[in-house]
Amino acid sequence: MLWEWLVMPQGLKNAPATFNRAVAHVMRQHRAYASHYFDDVFVHSRAEDGMSAIESHNRHLDAVLQTMGDAQLYVNLENPEKVKAVKESPVPRHVKDLRQFLGLANYLHKYSKNYAEQTKPLSELLKKDTEWTWPKEQEDAFTSVKQSIVETPVLALPDANNPFSVVCDASNFAIGSALMQKDDNGVDRVISYQSRLLKAAELNYPVHDRSYFQF
């Protein structure tokens, strides 16, 4: 009886190289708009041939998914499930629950504007010797974080041939920035969000100086 692997087995010395070559062979006809690294495939598109970027992207996705299906390669919907998990997360009842929620939210924080400022009331509960309470401030922060991740705007693909701009902001306890670039219609699009809480020493800086910490 002959047995054949249906998935790449773990532990074999040549498994990574063999798998990567297999994916490269399957995806070779889509190299112009689909990059890959092992089991991660990144489909990127722009306006072309009289089609908008969205129309072009939909066409590329259809082509890539068709090729993957023909080769019996399947898409993992794990990342959308992560967003669903954040959306359906119950109110934390103790520190362990809160750590689990923030760990999942941190994975998606680059899509969320002012994430550090939103999570500050929650982060306060993680400090040593802090009594566990859940007043309105924490409840509002918890709801705000979930909404910002679930309803977040779609990030744009950067274009190295066009100029970038950085928008910075600072509050009394956090700093944040957004990497921006204009699309083909001249509309500002967000490439990435970044934010963090200020350290103890940084809290003494004037607000206009805090924005420079992001550089």
Number of DSSP strand runs: 5
Query: Roughly what is the average pLDDT, rounded to an integer?
Result: 84
Oligomer: single chain
CATH topology of the largest domain: Alpha-Beta Plaits
Global Rg = 22 Å
Protein name: Reverse transcriptase domain-containing protein
InterPro entries: DNA/RNA_pol_sf, Rev_trsase/Diguanyl_cyclase, RT_dom, RT_RNaseH_2, Viral_Replic_Matur_Polypro
Pfam families: RT_RNaseH_2 (PF17919), RVT_1 (PF00078)
Which key phrases capture this entry?
3-stranded antiparallel β-sheet, alpha+beta, 38% helix, two-stranded antiparallel sheet, 215 residues, Alpha-Beta Plaits, Ubiquitin-like (UB roll)
In short:
By secondary structure, this protein is of the alpha+beta class. The chain has helices spanning 15-26, 53-70, 78-87, 95-107, 115-124, 136-150, 207-210, and strands at 34-37, 40-43, 165-170, 174-182, 188-197.
